[in-house]
Amino acid sequence: MEYISGIIEKKHIDYTDFANNVDKVVSIHGIIHRVREMTGFNFVILRTKREEVQCIYSPDFSNFEWDENYFEQQAVVVTGKVVADETREGRYELQIHDVEVVSSPAEEMPITINKKQLNVEMDTNLTLRPISLRNPKERAIFKIQEGIARGFKEFLLKENFTEIRTPKIVFAGAEGGANVFKLDYFGKEVCLTQSPQFYKQTMVGVFERVFEVGPVFRAEHHNTSRHLNEYISMDFEMGFIDSFHDIMNMETAALKYIMNMLETEYAIEIEILKAKLPKIDTIPVIKFSDAKELIQTKYKKVITDFMDFEPEEEQLLCKYAEKEFGSEFIFVTHYPSAKRPFYAMDDANEPDTTLSFDLLFRGVEITTGGQRVHDYAAQVKKMEERGMNVEEFDSYLMAHKYGLPPHGGLGLGLERLVTKLLGFPNIRSGSLFPRDLTRVTP
Amino acid sequence: MEYISGIIEKKHIDYTDFANNVDKVVSIHGIIHRVREMTGFNFVILRTKREEVQCIYSPDFSNFEWDENYFEQQAVVVTGKVVADETREGRYELQIHDVEVVSSPAEEMPITINKKQLNVEMDTNLTLRPISLRNPKERAIFKIQEGIARGFKEFLLKENFTEIRTPKIVFAGAEGGANVFKLDYFGKEVCLTQSPQFYKQTMVGVFERVFEVGPVFRAEHHNTSRHLNEYISMDFEMGFIDSFHDIMNMETAALKYIMNMLETEYAIEIEILKAKLPKIDTIPVIKFSDAKELIQTKYKKVITDFMDFEPEEEQLLCKYAEKEFGSEFIFVTHYPSAKRPFYAMDDANEPDTTLSFDLLFRGVEITTGGQRVHDYAAQVKKMEERGMNVEEFDSYLMAHKYGLPPHGGLGLGLERLVTKLLGFPNIRSGSLFPRDLTRVTP
Questions:
Q1: ipTM
Q2: What is the count of structural domains for chain B?
Q3: Which chain A residue has the Cα nearest residue B373?
């Protein structure tokens, strides 16, 4: 009988181990990212899990004979002596003693991925995604994406939130409207979730504080640089709040935690991407109506939409926050009730507005949140006033009927945050395999 | 101008703070789980985020007057003096000085949720999910679920895996077959993902080691106690493996890490559920053909299916592993090639079998994994032999064409693991809001 022990043997070392192995002969594996043949010596740049590692061949280093057939995208194990890189402070390189080829590609790459910048059109980038992502700058985006979601989770667990996993096949769209994907489910017409809204409110009655990071789906019928048809929503919902300020504070603290994590644990990728992380001290807050007035008076813009912001207006508000308060973020509160969903709580003092907010960052909205209606009678009344079929929402309203504390929460779009953080103009840059009006492959 | 600082004020303490506040007057919030009125004193059991907290009213404790209308599912803030619970070692209770009602339910609960066991049929439990989950034992299942996924992620991050988020709307089912949900995507017929298989293999070419925890969808046309139509798959995929033993070792190490995390950080729920965690030392490994023989010779069972196990056979194998090797887990390897997907690598020594495995635990398969074909020509050949339309998979095969290291991985069903771990006979117990043939609400 054979047994599996769970002991993980590390057959090759990582680049991070180089510092402790100077002058020793070690093995490292990776993908050949670039080969440069010079006079008398050659460079092999290995692409490893997170870093590029420079290996140098010279007949002076060993008896190993250079095989002219080493080429890009081969998987190899390189053995050699670790030495300090004399041209780059604090970096190490490998003097090649041996190269073992583990696997080879069938064809040469149709695009150049081993330059700093991937110089192809967005469309080519996305069509060739499996290989364009091999460009160090492209893949670094998704290490940062990992870090953001990881920071979000770690922070909320620390704050005694429970992570939940709610269904994506649902009976009704949380946001309503036409942009819902419909699905045949054993003869029944159902939807793909637009938001975990109903479930996270329900779960406030169970765990008080919950969060989820998961996919949501919006059948938006237009291609823009700010929308995806499938994206990752980072959601939380918390009970026993005094006001929606509790939610804005929780988000601000989460963002600080995330930025700190990126700075410390994702320095490699921050450097590759030359990203400028925002400094978050305090975030200014402005009411929706005041913001509209400001845009009109200060920026001389004629307001045509009194219910929502146009993209240009969000940019102006961010410009204002940056200039006046040195903040790249700004909270806008008290959005008109007519533009917010039925579960948003109205402000008792200004019943046309809601106790809700958006968070804008570098010119675009990255979060929508607010306090929710928790009282059953009040929620039913609001739905009836909107002409909704209350019975359809029976299973959602069960939580209200049998008691919910005052609560609220938010949704934070992961791809929007990562692209704005890294300064990309198109949200597709922040999605591994984006889904848009025309694209479901790869 | 108003500002948000991100400073989180803790207005009420948690039960975990009680130990440091003995004899002090504190406030705690929660949901009234049970009220017991006795002669001369009353009990209020509060349901808080993770624990039940006992509060006692007596006119001796303060001038506070008991309001006879306190009832179950009200959200309250209770203020009082922390004292040691004399009947339960190491526990604390609160002598009530004040009760503030924050919100009240509209109706009385249709089921009893405040007994230890929720004594309702599965169907009632699921129909009333928003409130049945308020039962401490029911909700504890999902804290354990959180812990399993958290342990999986933490362990893999430590092993230098990158967390990825791949699309759920896809162009082709990874597992093939009829059980794919179809979807109209702007006039195109597409699928809901059955597995992140194609994407995680693709991402081996980018990050070498990747994992994902996310929903997958299977249009199974039968209701069983072991299947869900939407479930959470915990997947990883790793490059530069020597054999599929590397994958089994990684899984075994991950399971050890997870069990350790549950024992230390989820002791509250382990206790509530009286769960018996498996001890994992080494896990025995048996070949599929040997397992079939064993079942026939040792357990005198007539084999009718030579390509796969029947549920009873999986139970027998687990019984065998437990009895002979003291292990609640057993790996079965070398499944017949004909029953494994096209991307599974065949064993060069026994070409009818694959370098693949299942992991069985307490009578049921919880993981399928193995080494994959990484060579482009070999993969195309295998697909052609199966009569597949290779062109359809162009975007998947791009990774192979332009080079992939030897690699493999696995998928671990979260709901199966959690229900088996906690000893529930029906997988629905391990899903917050299960989706089956007849159920899409709540």
A1: 0.98
A2: 2
A3: A103
